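W.,

You were right to be curious about this one. When I first looked at the sequence I had no strong expectations either way, so I just let the prediction run and decided to look at it fresh. Below is the sequence, 223 residues in total, followed by the output.
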Amino acid sequence: MTRRLLPILLLFAAACVSATAATGPVPAPKVDAALAATPGRATMVIAGGCFWGIQQVYQHVKGVIRATSGYSGGTPDTAHYEIVSTDTTGHAEAVEIVYDPSIVTYGQLLQVFFSVAHDPTELDRQGPDVGTQYRSVIFFANPEQQKIAKAYIAQLDQAKIFNRKIVTDVTPLRGFFPAEDYHQDYATLHPNEPYIAFNDAPKLTALQKTLPELYVAKKAAAK
């Protein structure tokens, strides 16, 4: 796998910069869904670089039931790691998050996305990973998700929360295809791999420090 063969110094350099390039704390969205009155299940799909780290972050977010690594943006026949890695499929490495909307809101999950999960100002890359499969995307499943996502991006850009303009795409969800089993829980199972230690572990630490009210120690399921 290409990302595991990258020079250690490059990985270390990527980890030493801010995870999101934010100029300060990322505020909660002004436009958001209300907490549901009763427990249930809702789904969001996002992409922002390697799915290993994003999956691990959301597995430790309050109210998340399951976070699954996979592919979105392309067709079912090309939803395979080796093909997606050719940067020709339209897929992004994505994570499907199933959560209880009576515990955490869609907007709060987006706050995690923009605060600690990735840098939304990097176009078609994240740190050492380059290509459209590593682009920043919010795949909305309904008009409410679209409204919240677009309003939040506008809010953050207007407030100049980041050093550069947010390039996150907001696009309809056409399908989500779970990744191969060896990609599930990858960051948890390989904490000492240089890529994980330098690029993904700091994201989980940042979640604990930056959004402690949303962090839970118990890990949610992967599939």
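Here's what jumped out at me. The radius of gyration is 16 Å. And, maybe more interesting for your project: The chain has one domain: 2-214.

Coffee later to discuss?

I.
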